[in-house]
Amino acid sequence: MTRPRIAREWLYPESIPAASETQRLLAQRVVTEDAFDEVRTVAGADISHNIRDPQAMVYAAMVLLEWPGLEVRERVGVRTRADFPYVPGYLGFRECPSLVAAYERLPAVPDLIIVDGHGISHPRGFGIATHLGVLLDRPTIGVAKSILVGTPAGEPGPEPGDHVPLVWRGRTIGAALRTKRRVSPVYVSIGHRISLPTAIEWVMRTVRGYRLPEPTRQAHLAANLLRREQTDVFPAPAPRSTHPRSR
Fold this sequence. Notes:
By secondary structure, this protein is of the alpha+beta class. The protein has helices at 8-11, 16-27, 91-103, 128-136, 196-205, 214-229; strands at residues 41-49, 57-66, 72-81, 112-116, 140-144, 151-152, 163-168, 171-177, 186-192. The protein has a domain at 22-149 and 188-228: archaeoglobus fulgidus dsm 4304 fold, CATH 3.30.2170.10. Helix 3 (91-103) packs across helix 4.
């Protein structure tokens, strides 16, 4: 895959103030309307790490799934040492270098990327899903397990698909979305090149009985596997038996 053209300071700022300025400038590039064509593949993106790890290792995974069946087509991973400190609100600079490297290992450009993390539901409107989407200029959705900023406008209904706005400073920045009965909602926000209603629709389209949509669920499993095995290479799938099943 052709490497995206990314300015170094967009990934490796020299300081927290420089990172804040980069977020502010890149946030102006975010497209909050639908800007993509037919979806044939969806990728999930996630990282695994231990914030107490003295080596500051980051294990990033991207999983490419076919749409509409959501069969896993490819799993790719990267194991790198983070250059940026662990600072809430600036995780994109710690995690995006690894995710971009993983993206470059994919066999094809995904039509849509769902990221485990926040999009514009962020103090400066530039969470990791938005950061990655702008860097790659790909449609992205943020799906987070907890709130970073904002307050839900009530409790979403009990049924899968029920949702309420996530509001911050008088503005809707996302949605609290129920994906499974009797399970806490997830928090969906625009990443890049997608509207909030469409983002919610695609999250529900990719839910398969779990709280998390299947792309990020698979990426979460993949990233954790890399961290457990201390590697960036996934084991090859076991060959299918050619012998008829015994009866």
